[in-house]
Structures are given as structure tokens and as C-alpha cells.
Amino acid sequence: MRLIRAKDYQDVSRKAANIIASVIQLKPDCVLGLATGSSPVGTYKELIAKYESGELDFSQVKTVNLDEYVGLPKDHDQSYAYFMRTNLFDHVNIDQSGCNIPNGMNPDAEAECARYDAVIDAFGGADLQLLGLGPNGHIGFNEPADAFVKPTNKIALTKATIDANARFFASRDDVPKFAYTMGIGGIMKAKRVLLVVSGKGKAQAVKDCFFGPICPQAPGSILQLHPDFTLVADEDALSLVADQL
Fold first, then answer.
1. pLDDT for the residue 169
2. For a tag site, which of 37, 60, 66, 240 has the least CB within 10 Å?
3. Is 138 a known active-site residue?
4. Closest CA to 215 of 126, 147, 151
5. Which residues of the chain have pLDDT under 50?
């Protein structure tokens, strides 16, 4: 694991965007694995700024997203397809036909998960997978469990995750209870993994996942085994492990 320490969320976002930008510049037709949620928003803003300044060309980039809520159409304002368009895709010159996101409206979970794994396999995994970290240590929607789930799967979201996502919906009852998520196997196929984390609310998850044992109860801990894993974390996120750095 390579640890890059940052001052705050803005610094995390800037450092992460620089890493992603270098991948695009070195390999213009790269495959980016992308994440949603609040953690990568700043990173996407930095990438948009780099595109607008002429530093980046997204025209040959392909993408695979981590997850999508089950039951939300792609035009729903809380779907992750909508999130990606409004936070990145609509602001750069990417060919959105090459942007891959699980289809939350496919009622056949087995078929949808198999289809998405085939997409990932056809790319040979992402060149770089961007991740956030849930308060309970989840990556994608791979929640704490008794075993690591390798393939793309339909997962029941935990109460903690539903509570965390409730702020994005009119009420907690409106939060989807299931999601399709790239499995641990798909994440680990990426040639590089970049995880961004900030805030004291994630400090325990950082400690459990990256400074503790590898176990499925802390899903992010599997990244300790990845050969090219970079953690970009701010001072608050690292506050519980300061004595180990």
C-alpha cells in the first residue's frame, strides 16, 4: 500500500485527480473504474477543470462504474447513471456509449451480474479503479459479511448504508434497499486501485481496513493484497492511526 497524506478534502481531491490525469495522459484509451457518492465529487471537479484547461482529452477513455441501485431508471436523479452524467460525463468530451454502469432496471439479477462481469472481463479489468470507503468499510456496495464476494452481485444494503444514503432522498423509505455492485474480484482485477477518503467519520474504517487484519467484516481490507494500491487520505481520516505513520 502506498499512502499519500493530504491536508483536507480539497487536497485529497487534487492529489487523486493528478493520479488519474497521469493515467489518461500516458494511455489515452485507458479504462477507468469509477465510483459515486460524496468522496469522488471533488476529484471529478478537478478532472473537469483539467479538461477545460486543455490538459486532458477523454475522447478515447472507457469507463466501468462500481454500482447502481436496483429499481432506479438511469434518468432518476438519484441513480448513479445520473450522478455520473451530472458530475463528470456531461462536462468532458467522453463518448458516453463507452461508459458502462450496471442496469438497475434489469429484474433478472443473475443475468445482469453475469453481463457486467463479462464487460469487466472484456476490458481485462480497469487500468485504474477509483474507490471511496464507506463508514463500515464497504467498497462499492460490498458490505461487511462472512466472506468476500468475488463476482458482481445483487446485495441487500445494510441499515448503516441506507441511513448514510437517506440524505439524498426525500425520506429514508425512498432509499433503495438493493444494489448491483461490482464484486471484490472485479475490483481486484484493476491494474491500479486508488481510494480517496476524508473526514473523521471515516477514521475507524481506515484503521480497520488498512491498519488491521484482512477480513470480510472490513471489506476494504482486501486492498492490502493488491499489488498497486494507493490510499489518499486527509488528516482527519488518518487521525486514529497517526501513531502508526
1. 87
2. 60
3. yes
4. 147
5. none
Write down the pLDDT at residue 157: 85
Catalytic residue among 117, 127, 143, 236: 143
Q: How far apart are CA 218 and CA 204, in angstroms?
A: 10
Q: Is 235 a catalytic residue?
A: no
Active-site annotation holds for 100: no
41, three cell numbers: 465529487
The pLDDT of residue 170 is 87
Catalytic residue among 46, 100, 138, 234: 138
Q: Which domains does the chain have, with CATH numbers?
A: 2-240 (3.40.50.1360)
- Mark whether 65 is an active-site residue: no
Q: What is the pTM of this model?
A: 0.95
- What's the grid cell of residue 146? 462472512
The catalytic position among 87, 103, 136, 165 is: 136
